[in-house]
């Protein structure tokens, strides 16, 4: 049974979608993952590639996904199949939808563990269990929180239950509305931490670490990590944004909403970096500490600043909310596919998905305690979920989508959806056809070691060459000429 695409639920106006998409994008990726990945990959060069990827790949892919969702009015699988079929494309393109759905599920399996950390820290602050003022104390508290599987499992189970309860009841809109106070609240909290950092003695070093760009110093792996993180942080190629786009009313502007979400998301990530690294440097901590980075550093700041416990509580309340507005978006694709195609209720779909998810996330949680020795090629199960999704599935999924949009679809298909002026449309098409795919491919070729792309001194030339190739492609493309000159 396939639901009538015309009668699909819709957001209440433009803000409904913007709040939901911002809620999905801004989450642990900005505050937990961005800082620790920046730390692991050496700082500013990673930040630069990440920003370039947001602009050159993330924004065009996000516009494409929202347009697919709205045009296809369905779960990622159905929407992509419909959009491709409309232009005579193969039904195999729906594999992109399958991969996205699987990807959202895999991300959620480790995301609930990290969200559990946030809830656990909130509880520690509320119950006075975060005592101690030294780096060693913080490292010990983080380790103790992880080594007991019952404790860690309790918190990740709680997050799973909360996520499924919200999705099952279909009350996301209520939760997403919280974005309107949570986002400003989070920005204020990060502002407080940044001001504290200004006086901590580590601010100058933090600024240099984050922004003294030296593109030559980044490894191939770091570049792939930055690309993957651009997808992760914007919730791309994991079904979330595409499914949310399927509820978008016809009149809302896709470009404007995309830019709003991308700017808000990037701002929060950069602020998180500015909040965390001064604390790291002032306390002589290692920026490459890994996934525990914010949980070891921020509590130190909260211990030392006036009203710190209060600020800490507010911070972890908002971080936990931000995690929930992201986690509910990761199951939406699966739940919408199940309700549309299997004729089951939203509630059953949510709890069914949640049960499988709980099993997988429990395995991920065990990576920190009982399963600390269960590794494959040096990675735990938790790391594998993260690695496969961010480094491979999301970039490949995004590549597939821009190729479908740029080369397979009839030009009027997405032109109607995007509703841009001819010039802006030409720019989007140019990005979707050349800049985004080539950007993704270059990073892949480099990471796979097929050819070592020398980004040190040569990369401006490399970019210029890509743009030149793309321009020639456009000049000989009748489709773009039609768009540019409005020929029919
Ligand atoms: N964008 C979210 C974050 O930065 O925390 C993570 C995420 C949400 C990834 C939804 C993928 C997704 F479908």
Write structural notes for this entry.
There is one protein chain. This protein has 488 residues and is mostly helical. It folds into two domains: 5-452, Amino acid/polyamine transporter I, CATH 1.20.1740; 458-488, no CATH class. The chain has helices spanning 13-25, 28-40, 44-72, 76-86, 94-126, 135-147, 149-169, 172-177, 179-198, 203-211, 220-233, 240-245, 254-282, 293-304, 308-342, 346-366, 381-408, 411-418, 422-447, 459-475, 478-485. Helix 3 (44-72) crosses helix 17. The protein is globular, with a radius of gyration of 22 Å. The two termini are 38 Å apart. Residues 24-25, 27-30, 104, 107, 232-233, 235, 238, 240, 326, 329-330 line the site of 4-fluoro-L-phenylalanine.
Helical content class: over 70%
CATH topology heading of the largest domain:
Amino acid/polyamine transporter I
What about the largest sheet?
none
- Proportion of beta-strand residues: under 5%
Shape: globular
Low-confidence stretches: none
End-to-end CA span: 38 Å
The small-molecule ligands in this entry are: 4-fluoro-L-phenylalanine
What is the number of helices? 21
Summing up helix and strand content along with how strands pair, one would put the structural category as: mainly alpha
Q: What's the β-strand tally?
A: 0
